[in-house]
Amino acid sequence: MNDGNRLSNKKNEQIQRENVKLQRSVLSKEVKGTKIWHYLATAILIISITLVNKLLDPYFDLANIALLYLLPVLFSAVNWGYGPSVMASLLGVLSFDVFFVPPHFSITVHDLRYLLSFAIFLLVAITTSTTAVKLKNQVNLARIRENRTAALYSLSRKIVAEPDIEGIFKAAVKMIANTIDGRAAILTPNENEELKVSASTEQMFNNYDKGKVEWVYKHGETAGKGTETFSDSDTFYLPIKSEQQNIGVLSVQLGAREEFFTLEQKRLLEAFANLVAIAIVRLRLAEEAQQAHYLAQSEKLRTALFNSVSHEIRTPLASIIGAITSLLDQWDIYTRKDKQSLLQTMNESALRMDRLVKNLLDMARLESGRLELKLEWCDIQDILGVALRRAKKTVNRHSLTVSANYELPLVKADFTLIEQVLINLIDNAAKYSPPGTGIAVEMKCDGKEIMVSVIDQGTVIPLEERKKIFDKFYRSYYPNKKTEGTGLGLSICKGIIDAHDGRIWAEPRNGGGNQFLFTLPLSESVPADLPLEVGEENVR
Question: Ranges for the Histidine kinase domain (predicted)?
C-alpha cells in the first residue's frame, strides 16, 4: 500500500514538474516572441490615451483620468505580453504625473498624497498586467494541451485502423511531419539488427547518421537538436520503446521556418513515439495470440485426424489381414463360395481405405488452395448417374428414388468433384438412416441456379448441430449408435461447392428426416456448337 502511494506521489510530482516546465516554456516563448514594435505600439497607446485625457480633463476628475491609463495596460498584457504591459504601467504613471498632477509638465509632486496615489496606481496596473498575462498563458497552455490531445487522438485513430506494422509506421511519420511542419522517419532493426528506414516522408532520411541513431536505440534516450547529446545535429532523435524492449528510433527535422524545438513540441513527439510503441506492441500481441490460436487449432485438428484415421484404417486393415491369413492357412478347406466371400471382404475394406485416402487428399488440396476446377459443360443428371453407380454398395440396404426435371439446363462445373459431392452426401444419408428406409435425390432449377437435395429419414439434426456439421472432423451421433467415418465428407462437400460459387446447407424435412441441399449457379448461355453428348467421357 505504501509502495503504491509512493509511486502515485512520484507520478504526481513528475506531472507537476512537467507542467511547470511547460508554463516556463510558454512564458519564454512569449518573451522571445515580443518584438520592438510591441513596445513602440505601447508608447503610442499611452500617448493616445494622454491626448484623450487632455480633452476630457475639464470634465473628469483626476481619479477617472487615472483609470483610463489602465486600458493600454490591459491591452498590452493580453496582446503583447508581460514586458509591454509593465512598460504601459510605468509610462501611464509618468504621463499622469507630468500632464495632470500639479505642477504640470514636471515630475515634481508638491502634494505627498499623490505619491500614495501613484504607488497604488502602479501596484494596481502591474497586478492587473500580471493577472492578464497569467490568464493568457493559461489559455495558451489549454490550447497547447487541446492541440496535443487532438493530434494524439488523430494519430491513434489512424494507426489503430492499420492492419500491419508497416502501415502504422507510414501513418505515424505522415502525421508527425504534418503536425510539426517538418520531416520525419522511423528506423527499425532488420534481421541482422541493423537499423534501416522503415518509413519516411522524404528520401533524404536514407542518408541518416548511423552512429547517432544506434546510440539512441541502444541507450533508449533522446538525442540530437535541443538536447545535451549530439546537440550540433539538425535532427531530433527519440527512442520508440516499450517496457520490454526497444522497437526503433523516430527521427524528426523541423521545417525551414522553425529554428528550435519547443518544449511542447518535444513532449508531443515523445507522446507520438509512445503511442506508436503501444500500437506496435498491441499488434504483436494480437499476432502472437492469433498464432497461439492457430497452433492450438492445429494441435486439435492433428489429434482429431490421428484418432479418426487410426480408427478408420485399423478396422478395414484388420479385415484384410484376417481374410488373407484365413486364406493362407486354410486355403484347401474353404469352398469356392467362401473364398469369394473373403475376397469380397478384402475388396470392400480396400475400397474403404481408398475413400479415406481420397478424402484426406481432397481436404489437403482444399486447405492449401491448390484445388483447380476443370470446368466444363455438364448434365447434372449424368453426374448423378455416375455417382449412383459408384455408391451402389453403400445404399444396398436402402431404397433409392430420383426425382428430376428433365428440362434441367447444362451447368458449367467440375464433373469429378460434383460427383464426389453427390457420393459423399448419399453415403452420409445411408450412414445416418435406419436400414430399410428410403433415400431420395431431387433436382430442380429456378432459372438462376440448379438445386440438388439428398433426403433421408434419419433422426432430425438439431439446429445447433446443423451449424457445425460442415466443419472438419465434426461428426454427428445417433442415440446409442456410433457411426463410422472421419468427419471429412461434408467438409469436403462444402469446400467443393464454395469453389463453384454455390451454396450448401442442411435443414429438417417435413414429416421427419433431413435434407442436404446444394446449388450450382447457371453460367452464361450454353454455346450453340456444344456436342449433344455432354459429359459422355466422364460417364464412361
Answer: 308-524
Per-residue DSSP letter, 478: B
| Burial class (CB within 10 angstroms; exposed 0-12, middle 13-18, buried 19+) of 493 | buried
CA 71 to chain centre: 56
In degrees, rounded to 5, the angle at the alpha carbon of residue 438 between the alpha carbons of residues 432 and 441 is 90
CB 159 within 8 A of CB 168: yes
Q: Nearest 5 degrees, angle CA 59-CA 62-CA 68?
A: 85
* Cα–Cα distance, 239 to 127 (Å, whole number): 44
- Closest by Cα among 502, 387, 513, 511 to 455: 513
In this prediction the pTM is: 0.47
pLDDT digits (tens, 9 = 90+) for 49-99: 889 888 888 888 877 887 888 888 888 877 887 788 888 888 888 888 788
CA dist 182 and 333 (Å) reads 98
- DSSP collapsed to 3 states, 79-135: HHCHHHHHHHHHHHHHHHHHHHCCCCCCCCCCCHHHHHHHHHHHHHHHHHHHHHHHH
Long-range contacts of 195-200 (CB under 8 A, 24+ apart): 195/248, 195/249, 198/165, 198/166, 198/169, 198/248, 199/166, 199/169, 199/170, 199/172, 199/173, 200/173
